[in-house]
């Protein structure tokens, strides 16, 4: 699984390196779509959806600071607040921040919170918004997530082999049908390097519920066409949250995807691509 390469680099205002790529770049006038990954994943989970959407769109993908191929360092701010600010910087860098160039945004898991914060708190403008099993409403975070985030110094002392087993089991639990071993290897690999091990616990420790508490009472202000997709068998964030979020966003549509767990882009890529493509076509 070596055919997913983020070949471009952006340096954030805080000095972090963000790796990114654009697919469908041969169509400069094609509408833009930005895909946001969740935690503890990377843009790799979007590879199938991104390639399919690139037939009609310019598709921007990126690994958030502290994730995947992007930079990881001691003292790094990888909180949801920081990621939303970086997203705004990237939209400017990609020349997608103006009224005429607004992108559609498709965001999974905590990428959903990043997109929502950028829009509601920082004025980021989108053409349309699709949220896939997003971190958006309290309470969130599995018991395992809270345990790891509460004791990063303890878990950070695990021998590498045990750490990698823990991460492997945790990532596996996001899928309902189970992940192909090569896919699981690719998702776990960035967290098993010398810089990746502390980065894994750092991102969990920094992401607490206040980042959604600050915005969840403002979802009624969203005036964008909004699609919410949810894995019917999501064991990380139950589908009931999808119904609640849909009720909070005016005019939002909910599509429940049977057979999928939390990691919908891997569990049901065809169904998710079809839903996203139809939603994007409705925007012209």
Written description of the protein model:
The chain has 284 residues and is an alpha/beta fold. It has 12 helices and 8 strands. The chain has an 8-stranded mixed β-sheet with strand order 1-2-4-3-5-6-7-8, with helices on both faces. Helix 3 links the parallel strand 5 and strand 6. Helix 1 packs parallel to helix 12, helix 2 crosses helix 3 and helix 4 crosses helix 8. The radius of gyration is 17 Å and the shape is globular. The two termini are 34 Å apart.
Helix content: 25-40%
Return the string of H and E elements. EEEHEHEHEHHHHHHEHEHH
User: Could you say which structural class the secondary elements and strand pairing correspond to?
Assistant: alpha/beta
Number of helices: 12
How large, in whole angstroms, is the Cα Rg? 17 Å
* Strand residues, percent: 5-15%
Average predicted confidence as pLDDT: 94
Query: How many DSSP-defined strands?
Result: 8
Overall form: globular
Placed side by side, the strands forming the largest sheet appear as 1-2-4-3-5-6-7-8
Q: pLDDT below 50 for ≥5 consecutive residues: which ranges? A: none
Largest sheet: 8 strands, mixed
